Amino acid sequence: PEQVLLEPEVLHVLAPPFVSRSQNESVVVSSHGKRRRSFLRKKREPPPSAAVTLHQGDGRGSNEDVSVPKDIDLMALPQLCFPGISSVYVYKEQFHFLVFTDVFGNKTHGVVMQCYQPVLVILSFCNGLGSAKFPKLFSAFSFCVISKYPYFTALKDCLSCLLIQLRNCRSSEIEERVKEFAAKLSLVPIPPPGQLHLMFTLRPLTIVLPSREDKDQPAIDLDLHLPFLCFRPQQLLQVLSCLLQEQRVVLFSADWARLTLVAESLLLYLQPLSWQQPYVPVLARGMLDFLMAPTAFLMGCHVSHFEEVAAETDDLILINIDSGAVSTSCSDTVDLPQIPAAAADCFTQRWQSLQIHFDLNQCHRASCHDINERRAQRRAWQHNLNHDIQRITLELIVNIFRFCVCHLNYEHRVFNSEEFLKTREPADQLFYKKVLETHIFHSFLKDRLNRKMDNYTRMEISTRSEMQRYDATVEVTRRPTMQEIQARRRSSITETGPNKRLGMSLPNLRDEQMNIAFYRNGIIMSDTVRTPPKHVKVFKLPDFPASLSFHSVQSYYSELIQHLGKAIFSVQNENSTMLARFYYLRGFINSLCLRRLDALSDFQNLYKTDTAIFPTHLVTWLVDSLQRDERHQADRRPELKRLILKPDDHVKKFELPRNPLPLAEFVRCVQECGIVKDVATIHRLFGAFTDGQSKQLDPELFRLFYTFWKETEAEAQDVNLPTQVVDHLDNSECVYKLSSCVKTSHGVGKIAMTQKRLFLLTEGQPGYLEITKFRDIQEVKIASAPFLLVRIPSLRIQTSSRPEVFEANLKAETELWNLLVKEMWAGRRMADQHKDPQYMTQALTNALLMDAVVGCLQTQRAITAASKLAYFDKIKHEVPMMVPKTTSETLKHKINPSLDLAEPQTVHVLLYTPGQLTCDHSESVKNPKLWVALSGGRVVVFDAASWSMLQDCIQVGELQLNCMLGLVQEQVWIGSQDSVIYIIDTHSMSCNKQLTEHRHEVTGLTVDAKDQLNSQQLFSCSSDGTILQWDSASLKVKRQFHLSCDRLSSIQIHEGTLWCCE
User: Fold this and answer.
1) Cα dist from 773 to 107, 211, 273, 748, whole Å
2) What pLDDT is stored for residue 927 in this prediction?
3) Which of 444, 473, 502 delimits the end of a domain?
4) Are 299 and 280 in contact (CB under 8 A)?
5) Do both 187 and 249 map to the same domain?
6) Which residue in 282, 616, 766, 1043 has the most C-beta neighbors within 10 A?
7) pLDDT confidence of residue 16
8) Rg value, the chain, Cα
9) Are residues 406 and 554 in the same domain?
């Protein structure tokens, strides 16, 4: 008989939610949702020669609409579910996998199961003598499960379970069984990122959903070693090279399932590089024209089309998965640059150490009588193998791109590709030149410029050689001084090889040429890649309910919440990371049940356990959906306030004002444009512009001021001083102001001002002549100097460093320079007297503002206006800030914790945590720190060795902080007026835990100094007299007692006795 070709069509679309409160309980499961678009079932007319009867199953009419959920486009789905020719004469169940990619690069994954149903065909004879049976035929139909997550193996197992049920049911029951199957799958939550997998039973199999390693990586639910079975190392490296160079790649196989699994594995090998081009791993027979696309792509089709595709299209990379051959549409060989040999050799060595055959691993084990036990053994083996493959492929990517970071400019987000290419071996330069032009590499660079701390970065750092570690410590400063630039130039000329100290740190270096090649290639064979995978815990979900009514589903969720509660209790004192995963899951299930406050409470607990998996978008939705009574309840629960109060996450672009500016708007604009933050200084600037006569500032004047400030800033950065001048400056000095060329008592030249001194740049032969350091000035005044028949204004500076007076004929600039020098002199005196360098920084800011005011006003009142900004010069005459002698003799250094804030803040608590003053690469050795608690719940951290600011703001609540306590250099506990104890992790410098057991403001914290390692004698007190004893490991209250007093202000343990102070 002649082959009958049938065009596939969509019959049913099932999408959650499958049950709702309002639905009739008699209808157990139904396709639920509003109608958005529809596919019309086409009524097919049988051919004249035969009448074919297809069993519809439900017996409904052929003109019925099928509802399609939002955001799902099913136009191409029928073809993809039947990508090849379906024969009506043979039947065989089979699976294959799909990946859909939208225009934004978001992926959706599908698993397709093809089944066959016998069709009874009746041939009617025209002579009316009767009828006869036609040979047995089969009608193909398929089920496709679509998910946002790539759970290929798990969904295949689920469909396999469905297949067993369908074999034993009548055609009229198929639709109901499929609806029940879909409803059960919709009850399964997705595991949070980390080491917690979920298990559920779908008779007869037990199925596991693996979790993602972290939130930026996809879940891996396939056999990553499949390409290792299909290709030899050389061919696999050739395929990866083609993908890195973004070629037009086509995969071929006789097995549709193999196409997607191999394609997905190849893209996972490239992580963290992410494929940016069109990606269609399965092309149906009617989609082959996709291969004519002019752009790069990765696609797959049946091997029967190999010759046709090779003949019709040019410049394709043809990869036959079944034979392991890699060729082009024009040749049997691939003429493309290969992956650098050193990285390829390292990868090949790692390949040879892999054990990629399960049966070899199981030779010594007893035979399993339980299929689920056997599957569990296979999963464990596959999990370990996937981990090993991920590590060696990541090592390959690290070895290829290791030195890219050496040529990144983070400030301007620039990658110097030309300099990078110069450092590569000549044989590898063509490969890198092609890769550097690809979208996949540009995406990779974005993450590097964002300093993303992912697996790539961690491996790159952990596998650095001694030489690479040394280079990494020589970080380019944000704005290098001119002296540093000169020093580098001298060093590049005089140093022709590794210096002596560096060479001594590498005892195994023998041949210099070998060392240079080793350094250039950056190949490190390290045992780091052999690290075992992290321990995984599997949580079993309850059995699915027998009935899928609304009440049954709610009961199922309640049972799941109970199981999660038991799991939380079992790991409370053991593993905070696993505890966070259980809290996350319970919060998610509570959200499904609309228990919003319980869900928020569970997500709030993530702050005590692991904030890395905090579901910001879900919590935002929960907060927005709170009913009025729920919001009132949440407001009465202090632990939920953090989630209810929304932070200001609005981002805007700075724009120059267009309307007159009152004082408040002027302050905002000046702070937004980054000129100065201090409110008092901005108020003085506003007074300088308005002269006290106007309450508003003209927007045009602000534009002139802003433009002049930015131009002056740029000019200061572009000052190019001769080497002999730079040699006289300190490393931290920059030139902030240059005069015009003037006559002075020491010759003709330009006066230059840095933050430390004045010096003269002599004309003619460029030279350096120091005028004075600001601390050496004794007197500054305006005089007049004779010039021909007139006298012109001049500036005279008396200094202690030389007997003669320095005089400069600055003419029109005299008054401005007089203001600048006096302000810098006054600031220097204040800084020395108070031992606070911030006075000098503020004086420099005042001087620059005065220069900008004079530059943009250009009127006779400009100097008068600028003088309003001479703050330190005024206060030294008005109310001298005297420091007591004892304080002056004792004071060593003064720091300003409010430096980056708009206004000075009150210091409420200080905490010193000890460490070591010596620098060491060991992570366990840390410098001492000074913790400063400011108003409004701000904590600022200083390095007590260098007194540099380590952390400018750790926000812990909104109210005043009353006490701080350090625990074994790992945690800092902080008691607040809001009754919460905040815990800061000293490694991440973040507040990741909170204790809310107190009901009044926390006023004291203490720990037994003799028992700090165990931290069992840890107490806290609140103002109402409540004292709690804590177990610092589990963060649980061990004991609680109450003192009758007006206000308990502090507690302290001394010699085993707890002392309390009112």
Assistant:
1) 64, 64, 54, 20
2) 77
3) 473
4) yes
5) no
6) 282
7) 75
8) 37
9) no
Report CA torsion sign: 816, 817, 822, 828.
Answer: positive
My answer on whether 824 and 726 are in the same domain is yes
CB 771 within 8 A of CB 749: no
Same domain, 230 and 377: yes
Reported as half-sphere exposure (CB side, CA atoms, 13 A), residue 32 has a value of 19
The answer on 271 and 160 residing in a single domain is: no
Give yes or no for a contact between 957 and 980, defined as CB atoms under 8 angstroms apart.
yes
Q: Which residue has the tokens 């009767």?
A: 130
Token pair listed for 312: 């019709």
C-alpha 785/C-alpha 393 separation (Å) is: 77
Q: Is the pTM for the entire model greater than 0.90?
A: no
In a domain, 728, yes or no: yes
Name the phi and psi angles at 703, rounded to 5. Answer: -60, -40
Q: Which residue has the higher pLDDT, 52 or 412?
A: 412
Q: Give burial (CB, 10 Å; 0-12/13-18/19+) of 461.
A: middle
pLDDT tens per residue, range 521-567:
556 555 555 667 778 899 999 999 988 888 888 999 999 999 999 99
- Provide the pLDDT for residue 242: 94
Summarize the confidence of residues 751-768 as an average pLDDT: 87
112's tokens: 């397709």
Based on the fold, state whether residues 832 and 729 are members of the same structural domain. Answer: yes
Kindly indicate the confidence band of residue 881, based on its pLDDT and cuts at 50, 70 and 90: low
d(CA 937, CA 906) in angstroms, rounded, equals 11
For residue 337, pLDDT over 60 is answered with yes
pLDDT category of residue 385 using cuts at 50, 70 and 90: very high
Residue ranges in 326-477 assigned as alpha helix (H):
341-352, 358-361, 371-401, 417-422, 429-435, 439-449, 455-462, 466-473
48 class by beta-carbon count within 10 Å (0-12 exposed, 13-18 middle, 19+ buried): exposed
Considering the domain architecture, whether residues 423 and 352 belong to the same structural domain is answered as no
Residues 861 and 907 in one domain: no
Write down which residue in 192, 209, 238 finishes a domain. Answer: 192
Q: Considering the chain, what is the average pLDDT of its residues?
A: 80
| CA–CA distance, 95 with 863 (Å, rounded to integer) | 84
- pLDDT for res 497: 40
Contacts 24+ apart (CB under 8 A), 61-66: 65/35, 65/38, 65/39, 65/40, 66/10, 66/11, 66/12, 66/13, 66/38, 66/39, 66/41
Mean pLDDT in residue range 306-311: 89
1054: CATH: 2.130.10.10
Question: What are the tens digits of pLDDT across the range 965-987?
Answer: 988 667 899 999 988 898 887 77
DSSP 8-state symbol, 789: T
Tokens linked to 419 = 């300099």
Region of 843 on the Ramachandran plot (φ > 0 left; ψ -120 to 50 alpha; else beta): alpha
Distance CA 443, CA 419 (A): 20
The count of structural domains within the chain is 6
pLDDT of residue 973: 93
Three-state DSSP at 700 gives helix
Whichever domain contains 281, its CATH number is 3.40.50.11500
Strand 661-662 with 696-697, pairing:
antiparallel
Taking alpha carbons only, the member of 421, 356, 419 closest to residue 389 is 356
Average pLDDT on 562-580 reads 85
**CB burial string 24-40: b at 16+ within 10 A, e below:** eeeebbebbbeeeeebe
| Whether residue 294 has a cis bond before it, omega within 30° of 0 | no
Q: Could you tell me the pLDDT band of residue 421, with boundaries at 50, 70 and 90?
A: confident
> Which residue would you say has higher pLDDT here, 614 or 298?
298
How, if at all, do strands 790-799 and 537-540 pair? Answer: unpaired
* 107-119 and 137-147 strand pairing: antiparallel
d(CA 539, CA 689): 68
